[in-house]
Amino acid sequence: MGRLNLKRKGVIFAIIILIISIDVIQLPGKSVVKNNIHKYSENSTICGFTTDFETGEPIEEADICFFINDPQGHHYDYETWSDENGYYIIENVVEGLCHEYGVWADGYHFYWGIKEFDIPENETVWVNMSMYPFQPETSKVCGYIYDDYTGEPIVNISVAIHWFDIHHIINYNGSLTDENGFYAINFGAGRFDLYTITEGYVDQGSNMYYSGDYELFWINFSLMPEVIIGILRPDKGLYINNEKILPFFYPIIIGPIDIEISLVLNGGNPVDNVEILIDNISKYNFTSEPYTYHWDEKTPFRFRYKIEVIAHREWDTDASRTLKVWKFF
Questions:
Q1: Where are the beta strands (DSSP E) in 2-120?
Q2: Given pLDDT bands bounded at 50, 70 and 90, which one contains residue 301?
């Protein structure tokens, strides 16, 4: 009985080994089925030339990629580089559908093929690609950017250009303003427009302009702050016991005074609270209007002060305004 059980176990084990062997052996032909997944052979080829669109000259060392799905939707990526003749070849490619392909090369716009095509089994498919060279940036646009409320230059404002070259391909370029609010951007022949990107100001764009080679454009911007803070009181004049007696070149205060603040929101997120500081010391936080602070501190030994108002915003840049005053008693 023991020997019989061993024989039965041996037969069962042999059958299991045979089933596993049949499952993993790849039979000749198009594909093999394993664990209910259809595995397709990679026996096709893609090849072609990469050339300069304007001159027809070959492009060497272009980086070429193809993205292919087999008939069951499995994804395959293939990559190669062109030789000195602009020729490339990718062998051992799976049959299926090429849904995207592209090529990169120094000095050229990225070429992206969006037209789908089939890769038949065990065949060679030719795909030639012509690339547009970057246009020489022989023209220039420059100008100044100012604060529309104060008239002061705005530093470190980002100015960007949308430039459509002679092949109608969009390019991007940009610059930051210097300490004088000045910017300068090079670009090439075609059409372009400008726009500003900055925190604390309402972004602004220009009209569309047309340019040839070696042209110069001057375009200035005056940007509106998202938050405008006004210190309405005190202004330039002499104040005695909270009353303005006469105008003067700067604020002179004798005795207590009400500091009155105005706030205008032109864009961005709302203001959460308005803080008033005197010589960098916080005095009060307003959460709603009116923004009025009664300043009645005695100042027998100091006369020169800085009033600062800060509009705090949780999700945007804070805005501030300062005013220097003379105060006695």
A1: 31-34, 37-40, 42-52, 63-69, 75-81, 87-94, 96-104, 111-113, 117-119
A2: confident
Spatial distance between the Cα atoms of 302 and 304, rounded to a whole number of angstroms: 6
Go through 252-274 and write b for each residue having 16 or more CB atoms within 10 A of its CB, e for each that does not. bbbeebebebebeeeebeebeeb
The model's pTM is: 0.69
Flag whether 168 is in a domain: yes
Going by the DSSP 8-state scheme, the letter that residue 133 receives in this structure is B
**From CA 239, how far away is CA 261, in angstroms rounded?**
17
Q: In this structure, are 237 and 218 located in the same domain?
A: no
> Does a cis peptide bond (omega within 30 degrees of 0) precede residue 234?
yes
Domain span including residue 267: 227-328
Judged by DSSP in three states, 33 sits in: strand
pLDDT in tens, 92-122: 999 999 999 999 999 999 998 878 999 999 9
